[in-house]
TrEMBL record:
Record organism: Bradyrhizobium cajani
The name this protein goes by in its record: Protein TolR
Gene symbol of the encoding locus: tolR
Keywords attached to this entry: Cell cycle, Cell division, Cell inner membrane, Cell membrane, Membrane, Protein transport, Transmembrane, Transmembrane helix, Transport
A single BP term in Gene Ontology: protein transport
KW Transcription (keyword) present: no
GO CC entries: plasma membrane
């Protein structure tokens, strides 16, 4: 009776044929996902800005605290057109429409944010502010941009 005994140096063992463990992380799929997200955000970011396009004046004032509901915004553009949120309104219809909106929301204590283009006619802006004050609206906030530079 003979026995076959393989020696460890003979090359018959499995350990010598194993591939070394790969310790690197493949980042290609992560880069692909990040590039797709970048493209999605670049395309969708301009679509998120809604409202009347205005060139707001710049000041050094601090921003106001806002509550949860969407603020009531009025806008005056360069041509003197007046908007409530995004809907254009004639000056004659301004106070009745605002009263209807504020009665449903919170009465005359509702804060109204007035946005006016810096090249808009000052007389039109003053007229809108006068109409609001005469109608009994007490909380009027002028919207500006943060001053760049100094």
């Amino acid at each position: 009776m003979g026995m076959n005994v393989a020696s460890s140096s003979g090359g018959g063992g499995r350990r010598s044929r194993r591939k070394p463990v790969m310790a690197e992380i493949n980042v290609t799929p992560m880069v692909d996902v990040m590039l797709v997200l970048l493209i999605i955000f670049m395309v969708s970011a301009p679509l998120l800005t809604v409202g009347v396009p205005l060139d707001l004046p710049q000041t050094q004032a601090k921003s106001l605290d806002q509550n949860d509901q969407k603020p009531l915004q009025m806008s005056v553009d360069v041509k003197g057109k007046v908007f409530i949120n995004d809907a254009e309104v004639a000056l004659n219809d301004l106070v009745p429409k605002l009263k209807a909106i504020t009665d449903a929301r919170g009465g005359l204590e509702e804060r109204i944010y007035l946005r006016a283009d810096k090249k808009a006619d000052y007389g039109t802006v003053a007229k809108v502010m006068g109409l609001l004050s005469g109608a009994g609206f007490k909380k009027l906030a002028l919207v500006t941009e943060v001053e760049q530079g100094s």
